[in-house]
Specification:
140 residues; mainly beta; OB fold (Dihydrolipoamide Acetyltransferase, E2P); 5-stranded mixed β-barrel; 1 helix; 41% strand
């Protein structure tokens, strides 16, 4: 199984290019992902991980992701090699994104009333159809 799940901040805006053979869009960007543990007396370390998103997902990332945003990416790890201009063999390890998500909280000034789901329902006005008046009503 080859599955990567990352959450981090974009170190730069996604860079878009198109393949020469079939003109497919590919967006590439880098995520700064904090390490889990901090050594006492040191600052938190981060790993900088290269991400590649193809076609529609790449278009989404290039359109909506900006430097500094916190995002989540689900994908797979891929390694590849190529020869550079001097004929040297280069190795690249990157994550090929299969899913991408916003992970930042809403910016100041935005309200839930402005957010609508795909069905056009106002998410701020949704309420639960169940109510509990006391703990005695609970079945457990």
């Amino acid at each position: 199984m080859n599955k990567i799940i990352l959450m981090g901040r974009l170190t730069r805006d996604p860079e878009v290019r198109y393949t020469q053979t079939n003109n497919t869009l590919v967006a590439s960007f880098s995520l700064a992902v904090n390490r889990r543990f901090v050594r006492q007396g040191e600052e938190r370390q981060a790993d900088f991980i290269n991400i590649v998103a193809w076609s529609k997902l790449g278009e989404f990332c290039s359109k909506y992701f900006k430097k500094g945003q916190q995002v989540g990416v689900v994908g797979r790890l891929q390694t590849r090699t190529y020869d550079d201009a001097q004929g040297q063999k280069r190795y690249v390890t990157e994550v090929v994104a299969e899913e991408a998500y916003f992970a930042d909280s809403k910016k100041d000034g935005e309200s839930n009333a402005n957010f609508e789901n795909t069905f056009g329902e106002n998410m701020a006005n949704t309420s639960s159809e169940f109510s509990v008046s006391s703990d005695d009503d609970l079945p457990f």
